[in-house]
Request: fold
Amino acid sequence: MKTAARILAGVLFLLAAATSAMAQTDVVRNDDWMTRQTDTLRYVVRGVVRDASSGKTLDAVAVTIPGTSFATVTNKDGSFVIKSDIKPQYVSFTLLGYNSQTLPVSEQELKVRLTRGSIELTPATVVSGDPLQILLYAISKIESNAPRQPELFDCFYRETVQKRQRFIYVSEAVTKMYKAAMANIFGRDRAAVVKSRLLASPRQSDTLGVKVLGGPVMAVDLDMVKHRDLVFDENQLSSYRLETLLPEVIDGRLQFVIGFSPAVEEDYALHFGKVYIDQATYAITRFETSLDVSDRAKATRAMLVSKPAGLNFRPREMSLEINYKPEADGAWRLSYLRTRFRFNCDWRKRLLYTDYTTVSEMVVTNRYTGTDAVPIQRSEEFRSTYSLADKTQFYADPAFWDAYNIIEPTVTLEHAIGKLKKVETE
Reply:
């Protein structure tokens, strides 16, 4: 994905740039949009999701309120908190490889048990075929599977950095994302930060000064369905070996699974991964990619934006996950995006390398259409050249965050949404 790598190169994430314990200032942005969010989400549903056979808690389970755009996922302990502005009657649960389940809401904490799914194939079910033709047909169906009108989304974004096993940086932001209509060639997608905060290690030794890829705009830059040049074009496809893998089920829908891997040597790093395609609509539903890091120089060019002179950088992993979800109008929309980087760094005069892991996550929490889908103005746009660590002071609002503790980095981003939208009921 040479084109994707070029676009990514403009997205900056500053690794442990701050040396203060908490970069929160008294800069407050008046924002009626945020006030509207915190004032309307009055109904709360909590619970835990487990595997029906083993009893093991399940993380990353998609939790939705049918008929609305409110969604979250379970954290590492299988727990979830989801809120709504209307009283929910049912909550739905989906996880890749499991049967979807919809349960009525009760006053007690929901105890959900998901069973592993099995695929029953009829004689008419297509489970094999030319992976290139399947993928090209899915690409041709992108516009018909996309929303017809421009839309505005509420999102929550988080960046974390680990030095070995210790977290040295956590940054969180409530964001907005504007998506122009697919057919509008003059419309421009934009992202904006509404509120943000960061927690950084006070140790001078944790200040590395390395910039790798990430940032609140990644939901715009890395939308592989919306941006045609990020989806494999004919020139890129010739560099990959495609294969049709066993079908899988996502949200109760049978998927084509197309695997891809490098087939030739290029002067840039290629990727391994999978593309999931809904068999009923040929909508692209999920991307999983991992950079080929076997050539250190190529992988470094793809991952690294900048570093101090004299610092050795060794790439270990650059992975990307993107999920798209269907809604009642039949359109498929971006719902979740996650990037993960692992690398080693050390100064030339030292003998041992230090392991670093950075993760950036974005989840869509609400959607607006029609007159509510107000475009993000150029003056409030968060650009690809910005670093959230550098800009946090401009979006900080201690009064907004005061009721919440810093979200634990081990808790999944989607679980944190419930805390960010917490409404005082007392």
The radius of gyration is 21 Å. The first strand starts at residue 13 and ends at 14.
